[in-house]
Design brief:
The complex is a heterodimer of chains A (about 850) and B (about 475).
Chain A (H helix, E strand, L loop, with lengths): L8 H24 L17 H6 L16 H7 L14 H12 L32 H11 L10 H13 L5 H9 L5 H11 L1 H14 L18 H12 L4 H14 L4 H6 L16 H21 L18 H10 L3 E4 L14 H34 L9 H9 L6 H21 L8 E4 L25 E4 L7 E5 L5 H6 L14 H10 L6 H14 L20 H13 L4 H9 L13 H7 L12 E2 L2 H11 L18 H4 L4 E2 L2 E2 L9 H4 L15 H5 L18 H9 L1 H17 L4 H10 L5 H20 L11 E6 L6 E6 L17 H15 L1 H4 E2 L1
Antiparallel strand pairs in A: 1-2, 3-4, 5-10, 6-7, 8-9
Helix pairs in contact in A: 1-4, 3-4, 6-8, 9-10, 11-19, 15-16, 15-17, 20-21, 20-22, 28-29, 29-32, 30-32, 31-32
Chain B lengths: L7 H7 L9 H14 L13 E7 L14 H5 L3 E4 L11 E5 L6 E4 L4 E4 L12 E4 L2 E2 L5 H10 L9 H9 L9 E4 L24 E2 L18 H21 L5 H23 L6 H6 L7 H18 L4 E6 L8 H25 L6 E7 L2 E2 L2 E3 L11 E2 L5 E5 L6 E3 L1 E2 L6 E3 L2 E2 H11 L9 E3 L2 E3 L15
Parallel strand pairs in B: 1-10, 1-11, 6-16, 7-19, 8-9, 8-10
Antiparallel strand pairs in B: 2-3, 3-13, 4-5, 6-15, 11-15, 12-14, 17-18, 20-21
Classes of the chains: A mainly alpha (about 850), B alpha/beta (about 475).
Chain lengths: ~850, ~475
């Protein structure tokens, strides 16, 4: 299943061939088209198209696909029996061999805007949906199982079902009380009511919003050198959560993100939504090339839009015609031209009543204090420069210096030593970072505009923007081989021509004006006739319910993506989705009310199923899976009673591994300030989706559990099992702190049986007889140990000391960051708990490490 | 050793789990899955090198001031000129410029009398084991993008690091240790951990940083105050609970892998301290690496270089050692001078030590930064300073060890060191060559991701034959 094995050899060979096809055609075009096609058609041979070569000229067909040696073209290149071509050249055996091989392989064609021969099966996603007259999730699934001679697993137990549904819809495990209520609800609508209740919970949007953020590569920082904060990006995150909770029609959701600024200029949500377009990593510094950073954005937004909404990977088409999908390079640049007038903007936009601004003032004051302290530290260097200048000019008072001399001394930091300069750079860097970050408290949107928005453009200090009045849409050229320095043919904005070619949706015109390009794109994406859009979203939703989509590669509906296992079901669901008014919640109901969703993960004939359908593609049983990193953290916080359900607002800073938190991290030319967790538990123990997403500093515990790479669209989480997960869950301070907090809650509840209470809190069930026995034994043994070994007191916090190698002197530069004043609300420490509670914490640690807690069945 | 680490069979026995209760097929499946992931795999072609130590000089070391002297700059020193703004040049490299000569002396070393910076003393002893390559070119002059390009083959980050590709191609020789280990400086380089990420490859191939301060591997040991006894007792209970859970889910194959991952973790917990304990090395060896000497940077880098040798010895496939601080825009004499003094003993000792132990026969050693530096500099704080800006057209690189044509110089740069002019190759060719030296063919070392087969060189890299022995 790894790598090369995954691709049949013949396909790999084909890939190599396709690569050569482009090269061969490129050479033929260069050497031949001057006489045979461009301007003149000598000998009546037009070599610009495959058809032209097949039809041939005065001497007959130029190529006979499959018969290279017999083809006239090869003979002409060899000068064999016909005049040597191109005239006056010598035969080039290498070219002859390649052209012959190309014709031998059937003379595949891949020139821009020309069409190859595609296997219709590979174009399934571009073709109109097939209407199934009747059906339902179970019918489609059942039909395939029966055909393979397999029976479906029985229905899962209710306990399993409520955990499955709760984790799926809210990302949190059900409480024991919720489980009991469901077990006791014998009404026929109990399951449907449970799903409705979960869908109505605000936790639903937090769960499904996270899925969306995976796909759109969301982060709160820019990435690269400085990794500056995107101060207002959190408003996009909250917009996504809000949209899922409101069950915003998916077509509207798309339109807002692609062209909200143009289509709904009065709707603040729609402006915030355009943050999608610039969610990728992006930075421009004095060391960057402006044209390159602009192109980086254009490539990123083109890829992201196609992958997110259309399930297509366009990356290949940047340099050459897509080898496998009907996406010529020309289409790539036509689609890119849709975004060529899209500029970064950060316009003022008042906070909405739905946005959480409660902590803004306090947080702003905290940051202002730090920023102010940094400013004061910077002033020291002005004083030093002033004194150096006074010494140099032999005066004793600054007033005795000429004004311009004094100003220059301060500006250029006259005479400061390299060590002083290193320190100065550090404070300047921190000041710069804080200044950027302070903007998070301003009511602005992290958005885009069509053409520059005077006074609100947002490119950073190193970019020059024209005034809106002087702005002209830039010309877009095909970049030959993806190389910016080889602009080719000019293109106008357009869409993917394969859609019009293979489906029943004609291509609408995209205006070449400054505004309106993205509106045309958005309207085309959401057109019910667009064959890709609904299928892609239905497939994603299915994937998050079953661990794998009906089509396995959620971002790749092209030839190289896996074909859907149940194409009729995918189309049927897509039709229902559109009919429901693009309601995602209705889609959940459709899927979750099915028997297929409610099946047990165990199967009475497990071996037979494994033999006939080893990957469980036919869903004879419900596939168990490990919970995602965020669900794991949130679940631990929840069962420990430490989870804060406060929603929305700027990102919060959880505690993370202290070695990582204290790690010096480079920012261009200096260091980032040390990582500081939020002082209040209420903030730092919020759901993971509300934590600050910093590209250069991902919480290592989340990372080991396969949290997504924040720089690229994540279509599906990996769920690898690696030893570092054991380290993280069994040894980390977080796991130990939460286990203790949980034990302390049990102790303080005065529960008659702490073990039973612990099991109910973690597993939402009573322990079995055996479990109770071993747990109680463990508790007794550990209590003894703890009584014999009292806990050491909480250590005093130490200042963060960062040492880096100075670029100026090559010497070590040491920088101490004092702990912030103010009260830090600590987690419970073992020295504050009695031996039996500490022993109970050992048991709790084991439970949160157990597979029952980590998997969904 | 924290606690005894029984083999899986013993564990199953101790936990009272007969092989009958866990589906045997599940265990076999897991063994196969692991075997497919990290166990040794045959190379694509016969090659001498089985390990690689990559000495990454972060910040952009100057070729002009290290291994590629440019006497012409002496006559041009401080001559001013204007560089026009160009659509494809960074702001940094345009405007008023002046040439800067190297403040360093050079000396001849090795059989061919290859010129190297005179601050490199010990290094004169290994020059004949080194192949200096002057033809390499990067593409970006921006640190993080250039670092990603050198380390992961793609300027835009997120792709697998060279070490991840090599681990994917060759597996590891010691399953109790990671296949790809990174020895960073205390501060992480720009671009952070993405420089040794697994990208789209499975997570097993990710570089594991061994931190020079704090716990070498994150959370390898429990928080202070948790005794070994306590941890062992908790682990015993966990195993017991897992057995009861497996009994309820006999069909769930992943459970066996999960139990095994806890076992492997604790085997690693036991093995790692042994490997990284340099206490058993002789004082002479340590002194040779600069450990315990007056230069703190040399001491720190010496420890990492010695550790690199020990890791390779223990069967680790790819070790990346990072030395920071080469970004000398301002006072190059001081800044590069201290860097050169700091690397002299550690890197020379590494080569000598590898040679002494015979490991150099099967280890490829690479020394490179993300780009080189310019022969000229820009105006800084209102005046001229003796430093250099970034330069992607020329860069200092050397290789040593298995399969490399040693004791020679390949390629050349122009008379001021502005640009490579002989044996000129882009980074992707360098990547193809590294893989080739390790027995891997870039065109066959592919992984299907996001709709296409991906490879380290991205596309179209050529082997640099001049570098091969």
């Amino acid at each position: 299943m790894w790598g090369t094995l995954r691709l049949p050899l013949w396909l790999a060979a084909l890939a190599l061939l396709a690569q050569d096809t482009s090269a061969v055609l490129e050479e033929l075009k260069r050497d031949c088209s001057g006489c045979h096609g461009q301007g003149q058609v000598l000998s009546k041979l037009d070599m610009r198209t495959r058809e032209g070569l097949l039809a041939g000229g005065a001497r007959g067909p130029a190529i006979l696909p499959g018969r290279g040696a017999g083809s006239l073209l090869v003979k002409a290149l060899e000068g064999n029996g016909v005049p040597q071509m191109p005239p006056g050249t010598k035969p080039r055996p290498d070219l002859v061999a390649r052209v012959r091989a190309w014709i031998d392989s059937g003379a595949p064609w891949s020139e821009s805007n020309k069409w190859g021969n595609y296997n219709p099966e590979d174009l399934w996603a571009f073709q109109p949906r097939k209407r199934a007259l009747k059906g339902g999730v179970d019918e489609f699934i059942q039909r395939k199982l029966a055909r393979r001679g397999l029976q479906a697993a029985p229905r899962a137990g209710r306990r399993t079902l409520i955990r499955r549904a709760a984790i799926d819809l809210t990302g949190l495990p059900p409480t024991a009380e919720e489980v009991d209520a469901f077990l006791n609800d014998r009404s026929p609508g109990a399951w449907a009511n449970l799903i409705d209740r979960l869908l109505a919970s605000p936790r639903y949007g937090e769960r499904w919003g996270r899925h969306w953020l995976d796909v759109v590569r969301y982060a709160d920082t820019n990435g690269y050198s400085n990794d500056f904060e995107r101060p207002n990006a959190w408003r996009y995150r909250d917009y996504v959560i809000r949209s899922f909770n409101q069950d915003k029609p998916y077509n509207r959701f798309i339109k807002e993100q692609v062209a909200g600024d143009e289509l709904y200029p009065k709707d603040p949500d729609a402006l915030i939504a355009t943050g999608f377009l610039r969610s990728g990593p992006w930075e421009h510094t004095g060391m960057s090339v402006e044209a390159v950073t602009r192109q980086m954005f254009l490539d990123d937004v083109t890829h992201a839009t196609a992958a997110t909404f259309l399930g297509l990977t366009l990356g290949c088409a940047k340099c050459h015609d897509h080898k496998f999908d009907p996406i010529p390079t020309r289409d790539y640049y036509r689609m890119q031209a849709v975004f060529s007038t899209t500029e970064f903007a950060r316009p003022k936009l008042g906070f909405l009543p739905t946005e959480n601004t409660a902590g803004l003032d306090q947080a702003r004051m905290r940051m202002q204090t730090v920023a102010e302290a940094t400013r004061e530290k910077l002033q020291k260097f002005d004083e030093i420069a002033k004194h150096n200048a006074m010494r140099k000019h032999g005066v004793s008072r600054p007033e005795d210096l000429p004004k311009d001399v004094l100003a220059k001394a301060i500006r250029e930091k006259e005479g400061i030593t390299p060590d002083e300069y290193e320190e100065l750079k550090l404070y300047q860097k921190h000041g710069q970072l804080y200044r950027e970050s302070l903007d998070r408290f301003e009511a602005k949107a992290f958005a885009v505009s069509s053409g520059p928005l005077d006074g609100a453009t947002d490119g950073g200090p190193n970019l020059r923007y024209p005034k809106r009045a002087e702005y002209k849409p830039p010309e877009v050229h095909i970049l030959t081989g993806g190389n910016m320095q080889s602009p080719g043919e000019r293109v106008e904005p357009g869409l993917l021509s394969a859609v019009a070619r293979y489906s029943n949706l004609p291509e609408p015109e995209v205006p070449a004006t400054v505004a309106g390009r993205r509106s045309a794109l958005a309207n085309w994406i959401v057109d019910p006739k667009n064959p890709l859009t609904a299928r892609v979203m239905v497939n994603r939703t299915w994937q998050y319910h079953f661990g794998s989509g009906l089509a396995r590669d959620a971002n790749n509906f092209g030839k190289m993506g896996a074909k859907p296992s149940h194409p009729e079901l995918l189309d049927w669901l897509a039709d229902r989705f559109i009919e429901s008014g693009w309601s995602v919640k209705a889609l959940h109901r459709l899927i979750m009310l099915s028997e297929t969703y409610q099946r047990s993960s165990g199967h009475p004939s497990h071996h037979l199923v494994m033999e006939k359908d080893p990957d469980n593609k036919l869903l004879a049983f419900y596939p168990p899976r490990r919970v995602e990193a965020e669900v794991l953290r949130d679940s631990i916080l929840a069962v420990a009673g430490e989870l804060s359900l406060e929603a929305g607002g700027p990102g919060v800073f959880p505690e993370m591994n202290e070695d990582v938190a204290r790690q010096p991290r480079h920012a261009m030319g200096s260091l980032q300030p040390a990582y500081r967790p939020s002082t209040e538990k209420r903030q730092r123990n919020r759901r993971t989706i509300y934590t600050f997403q910093q590209r250069s500093l991902v919480d290592p515990m989340l990372a080991v559990f396969n949290s997504p790479n924040l720089d690229m669209s994540c279509e599906r989480r990996e769920a690898s099992t690696v030893p570092s997960q054991a380290f993280s869950l069994f040894n980390s301070q977080f796991a130990h702190d939460m286990a203790l907090a949980l034990a302390d809650r049990v102790t303080r509840s005065g529960a008659a049986s702490p073990v039973r209470s612990l099991f109910r809190r973690v597993y939402a069930r009573e322990p079995s007889h055996d479990e109770l026995r071993v747990a109680q034994q463990h508790l007794a043994r550990m209590t003894q140990q703890h009584q014999a070994a009292p806990a050491a007191p909480r250590p005093k916090p130490e200042p963060v000391v960062h040492t880096i190698t100075s670029e100026l002197t090559g010497q070590a530069f040491r920088f101490v960051q004092e702990n912030e004043p103010g009260n830090y609300e600590h987690n419970l420490h073992p020295s504050e708990a009695d031996p039996s509670t500490r022993a109970l914490a050992d048991l709790a640690l084991v439970l949160i490490n157990s597979s029952e807690f980590v998997y969904v069945y | 050793m924290l606690f005894a680490t029984p083999s899986r069979r013993e564990f199953l026995y101790n936990a009272g789990m007969g092989l009958g209760t866990v589906a045997l097929s599940a265990i076999v499946a897991q063994q196969q899955a692991r075997a497919g992931v990290l166990s040794p795999k045959p190379p694509h072609h016969a090659a001498k090198a089985r390990h690689c130590i990559f000495l990454l000089m972060e910040g952009g070391p100057s070729h002009i001031d290290t291994f590629d002297p440019k006497p012409k700059l002496t006559s041009l020193h401080m001559t001013k000129f204007q560089k026009e703004r160009n659509k494809f040049e960074a702001n940094m490299n345009t405007g008023e410029r002046y040439y800067v000569r190297s403040p360093f002396e050079f000396r001849r070393a090795g059989k061919l009398g290859i010129e190297i910076n005179a601050l490199l003393n010990q290094f004169t002893r290994v020059v004949d084991d080194v192949c200096f390559f002057r033809g390499l070119q990067a593409e970006s002059v921006n640190h993080p993008t250039a670092m990603y390009h050198l380390n992961c083959g793609n300027q835009f980050g997120g792709d697998p690091a060279v070490g991840a590709w090599v681990s994917y191609g060759l597996g590891t020789e010691n399953e109790n240790l990671p296949a790809f280990v990174v020895l960073p400086d205390v501060a992480y380089p720009q671009g952070g951990a993405a420089n040794w990420g697994n990208g789209f490859l499975p997570a097993h191939y990710q570089g594991t940083p061994l931190r020079p301060e704090g716990a070498p591997i994150l959370d390898m040991t429990p928080p202070t105050g948790v005794s070994n006894q306590r941890q062992a007792a908790n682990l015993e209970l966990l195993k017991l609970m897992e057995r009861m859970h497996s009994d309820r889910h006999p069909e769930h194959a992943e459970l066996a892998a999960r139990i095994e991952s806890y076992e492997l973790a604790f085997r690693m917990q036991a093995e790692m301290p042994r490997v990284i304990d340099i206490g058993k090395e002789t004082e002479a060896t340590k002194a040779m690496y600069g450990i315990g000497g007056p230069d703190k940077d040399a001491d720190a880098l010496g420890r990492r270089c010695l550790l690199a040798r020990r890791l390779v010895e223990a069967g680790v496939r790819f070790v990346q050692v990072i030395a920071m601080g080469w970004d000398s825009h301002d006072y190059i004499e001081k800044a590069h001078g201290s860097r050169l003094r700091a690397i002299d003993k550690p890197i020379s000792a590494l080569l000598m030590d590898l040679k002494r132990t015979g490991l150099l026969e099967e280890t490829l050693v690479v020394w490179a930064g993300e780009f080189g530096r310019s022969p000229d500099n820009g105006i800084r704080r209102g005046g001229e300073v003796w430093g250099r800006d970034h330069n992607a057209h020329a860069m200092p690189v050397w290789l040593a060890g298995a399969g490399v044509k040693c004791g020679t110089i390949i390629g050349a740069t122009d008379e001021v060191g502005g640009c490579a002019v002989e044996a000129v190759h882009p980074l992707k060719d360098f990547h193809v060559t590294l893989l080739h030296l390790l027995g891997l063919d870039d065109n066959r070392l592919r992984y299907f991701h996001a709709g296409r087969e991906k490879q380290l060189s991205q596309v179209g890299g050529q082997l640099i034959r001049e570098l091969l022995a």
